[in-house]
Design brief:
The chain is α/β, with parallel strands linked by helices. The protein is built from 27 helices and 36 strands. The relative contact order is 0.07. It binds a DNA duplex (12 and 12 nucleotides) through β1, β2 and β3. One of its GO terms (molecular function) is 3'-5' DNA helicase activity. InterPro entries: DEAD/DEAH_box_helicase_dom, Helicase_ATP-bd, Helicase_C-like, P-loop_NTPase, PriA, PriA_3primeBD, PriA_3primeBD_sf, PriA_C.
DNA sequence: AGCACGCCGACT
DNA sequence: GTCGGCGTGCTC
């Protein structure tokens, strides 16, 4: 760091601000603070006329900006860097690669609790006495604060009727009249639970046995004591008493509050408070960490280590149920023993389940979990714990790539092919799997990509020796791959073997399974009751008012909903066109499947697993528990079940809309269909028994089904890769998608056309596809057009992107781009 | 992205 | 005559 004690130079800092404006922002450092500014610390700055933001310093220098007057910093939030150099480098890399601003990345990288903004609170110092030191304006403001207890920057601004209250506030802070507390300190409070334990006296065996004798006459108190001893066997080991028992456990059993109170009064029990981390699920005993790998697993494990000697990235391609997890665990143990940090990325839904419980049991306190359903408090807690080194192992979703690692040794990306690793909606539109390879390079860490059905991009790299490749082709134990049956729905319909959407075969199988006490899973990749409702007279279909899609009927809420914009309306009784009353639900969603199966198979206990039934944090876990405990016979679900559920009991899987998946208009449709169907099918038949899978389709001769039945990933890959090469699709080219949006259809088309022509001129028509209307032309009243850019392998991506950015900037200055939104999606899926 | 400045319709 | 609609342009 610079340190010129008598320097006449003025210091400036370049900072990242959470705004979608390219580049960094230069601010001036007040003379007194020169010693405190440093790369990686957060600062609060004024921005525009009335806003304050938290930014992070990326550079300290003494070059005044020439084109504008730099403003002063308002506040310094950290003593030490909160964001380390590698993180700053990663932010910059992502912004460059994904063609967004550092601010976009910063916004995604930091939990909100670490980004105070205009909402920061101001409070009067209660011990403040020296009112005579204040200016008139200041004392008026302080009196206002006295009344209000606290106020926000915004409130202060409107009260003071000035454009920027920060100078006055700063002066008051200097006089110790007020506090500005960053919301971090305010919002972030540790969680405390109340526990009960024996007083020290009764931890002695003789006192305790004596007590039990005395309580013989008081059965209720005795019951309470015995319940305690049942959970905490103090007689066996008095030191266990220190752990205590959650008060809830008493109240949940038959023990009355009054008997507890009596025991507390008589100083048998005492209450104490414990600060708990928000996600340590109790203090389960750690299970023994030594387990044997099977021969196949051990061979794979050794091969991975070998591959890491020469390559940084390795693909582990292991069939469902081959026991990849044990191999991961072994690698994680090695890395941790080595003193390295480990990051284990999972798709969101997989994270709520058993695997995390299992890892928690093995790795205990060193394991931190980073999940999108966690509150902001919890995220800040994880962030700090990683920075402090409390967690050396993180299991998390996409965004955990931004955590403050300083010594990463191993990154595992499980279910590597999952599209949820790519962020689609707000920028940065990054792919965690790809970001992780850069992150790992910075840390000189190894990356293991795991999947039963790798993405073709990844497999291509492995095949071409860029990544290591290790295969695990046998299922763990003796379990056989499920037997897959195709049901020809066209034929079944002719033979009168269809019952609505269900073939007799599936219904029969469900009945047989139910009688045998076995569980079944039905897969329908569409939530709600029916994907559309239609008038039987005039064929009118209820459409969303803001989007170019039909409305899905949700029976539970008796509403029509748009799955794209969230629009809702109550179920109409009349046709929107002819006024007729014969509206009918068309097609099948999970709700309707659930209802009809209930009708066909009365007595079956049916559970539904889709976005609608698992919105809350615990709902999904409760459903899983119900399945595990055998409280459900049939589970109906969307792709959530394919990805989230992982247990033994399922003996049969039924798949309904296979045709929809296969015929999806996208060059990756076959790859995706293979992955999804294989994944769903893989839910059937674990631990010994062979499972059965029934797929309803009207094109049973489709080659894809044969590949799925044979588990012939390789064959499908070979076939598809030829097509990809022939038609110039990934992995032979990189794709960048441009989306052009406008409220007016014609304006979107005009802008897209103009841009398309420019790009064709400058990059060659062969590289530009479109403009074309996307699958859904209008969402939230915005019409969209798409342009696809193909960049063949070997072309310098960074140069291409700089060139592309210039073209885009030029286009956006055109009159035809007025009011047009332009989205850039690099490596779009 | 916000948010201010700025230029045209329905209200006291 | 004003309040307020959202079009456009800037933010270190």
């Amino acid at each position: 760091m610079f340190n010129f004690p008598f320097s006449l130079q003025t210091f400036f800092v370049d900072i990242i601000l959470p705004v979608p404006i390219p580049g960094y922002f230069t601010y001036r450092v007040p003379k007194d603070w020169e010693a405190y500014v440093q790369k990686g610390i957060r600062v609060v700055v004024p921005f525009g006329t009335s806003k304050v933001y938290t930014g992070v310093i990326v550079a300290v220098h003494s070059n005044p900006p020439t084109k504008y007057q730099a403003k002063y910093l308002l506040e310094i939030l950290d003593e030490y860097p909160l964001i380390n150099d590698k993180q700053l480098d990663l932010i910059e890399w992502i912004a460059g690669y994904y063609m967004c601003t550092p601010g976009d990345v910063f916004q995604a990288a930091l939990p909100a609790g670490l980004k105070i903004s205009s909402q920061s609170k101001i409070q009067l110092n209660p011990t403040f006495e020296e009112w005579e030191q204040l200016t008139e304006k200041e004392s008026v403001f302080c009196n206002f604060l006295k009344e209000k207890e606290s106020c926000t920057f915004d409130e202060a601004k409107s009260f003071l009727e000035v454009k920027s209250p920060y100078y006055l506030i700063k002066s008051l802070v200097g006089k110790s009249a007020i506090f500005v507390f960053d919301e971090l300190k305010d919002r972030y409070s540790p969680k405390i639970i109340r526990k009960i334990r024996l007083t020290e006296y009764y931890t002695h065996k003789e006192h305790l046995t004596q007590l039990i004798g005395v309580l013989e006459a008081k059965p209720k108190q005795l019951a309470a004591l015995l319940l305690y001893l049942q959970h905490i066997s103090v007689l066996r080991d008095p030191s266990l008493n220190a752990k205590g028992l959650d008060k809830k456990i008493f109240t949940q059993s038959e023990i009355s509050e009054s008997s507890i109170q009596t025991l507390l009064k008589n100083e048998v029990f005492e209450v104490f408070e414990q600060v708990i981390s928000r996600f340590s699920e109790g203090d389960d005993e750690l299970i023994p960490t030594k387990f044997e790998l099977s021969n196949a697993q051990n061979r794979a494990f050794q091969e991975i280590l070998k591959s890491f000697e020469t390559k940084d990235i390795c693909l582990l391609k292991g069939v469902t149920g081959s026991g990849k997890t044990e191999i991961y665990i072994r690698l994680i143990q090695e890395a941790l023993a080595n003193g390295d940090q480990v990051l284990y990325l999972l798709p969101e839904i997989a994270l709520t389940t058993q695997i995390v419980m299992r890892l928690k049991k093995i790795f205990g306190e060193q394991l931190g979990i980073y999940h999108s359903k966690f509150s902001d408090n919890e995220r800040v807690e994880v962030w700090k714990s990683v920075a402090e080194g409390k967690y050396s192992f993180i299991v998390g979703v996409r965004s955990s790539v931004f955590l403050p690692f300083n010594n990463l040794g191993l990154v595992i990306v499980d279910e590597e092919h999952e599209t949820s690793f790519k962020q689609t909606d707000p920028a940065p539109r990054y792919h965690a799997r790809d970001v992780v390879t850069i992150l790992a390079k910075m840390h000189q860490a190894k990356v293991l990509l795991g999947s039963a059905t790798p993405s073709f991009e990844t497999y291509y790299q492995a095949k071409n020796d860029k990544f290591g490749l290790v295969e695990l082709n046998e299922r763990y134990g003796e379990t056989l791959l499920p037997e897959i049956h195709l049901i020809d729905t066209k034929y079944a319909a002719k033979a009168k073997q269809m019952n609505g959407g269900f073939s007799e075969e599936i219904l029969d199988k469900l009945r047989v399974n139910l009688e045998a006490g076995k569980q079944s899973l039905l897969f329908q990749n569409r939530r709600g009751y029916s994907p559309y409702i239609q008038c039987q007279l005039c064929e009118w279909i209820a459409q969303c008012t803001q989007c170019d899609v039909s409305l899905t009927f949700h029976a539970r809420d008796k509403e029509l909903k748009c799955h794209y914009c969230g629009y809702k309306e109550t179920l109409p009784t009349r046709c929107g066109a002819c006024g007729g009353t014969s509206l009918q639900t068309m097609g099948y969603g999970t709700e309707k499947i659930e209802e009809e199966i209930q009708m066909h198979i009365p007595g079956a206990r049916i559970g539904r697993v889709d976005l609608d039934t698992t919105r809350s944090k615990t709902a999904f876990q409760n459903l899983i528990l119900d399945v595990q405990n055998g409280n459900l016979d049939i589970i109906v679900g969307t792709q959530m079940v394919a990805k989230g559920l992982d247990f033994d009991g399922l003996s049969m899987v039924g798949i309904f809309d296979a045709d929809k998946i296969i015929n999806f208009p996208d060059f990756r449709a076959h790859e995706r269909a293979y992955q999804l169907i294989t994944q769903v099918a893989g839910r059937a038949g674990r631990r010994g028994a062979q499972g059965e899978v029934y797929i309803q389709t009207n094109q049973p001769t489709h080659a894809l089904f044969q590949a799925i039945i044979d588990g012939d990933y390789e064959g499908l890959y070979q076939e598809e890769i030829v097509e990809r090469e022939g038609y110039n699709y990934p992995p032979y080219v990189r794709l960048i998608r441009l989306v052009i949006k406008h409220v007016e259809d014609t304006k979107a088309k005009k802008a897209a056309n103009d841009l398309g022509n420019l790009l064709k001129q400058n990059f060659g028509a062969g590289r530009i596809l479109g403009p074309e209307k996307p699958l859904i032309e209008k969402i939230r009243n915005l019409y969209a057009q798409e342009i696809l850019i193909k960049i063949e392998n070997g072309v310098s991506l960074s140069k291409f992107k700089i060139n592309l950015r210039e073209n885009l900037d030029l286009a956006q200055s055109w009159p035809s781009f007025k009011g047009v939104q332009l989205i850039v999606d690099v490596d779009c899926l």
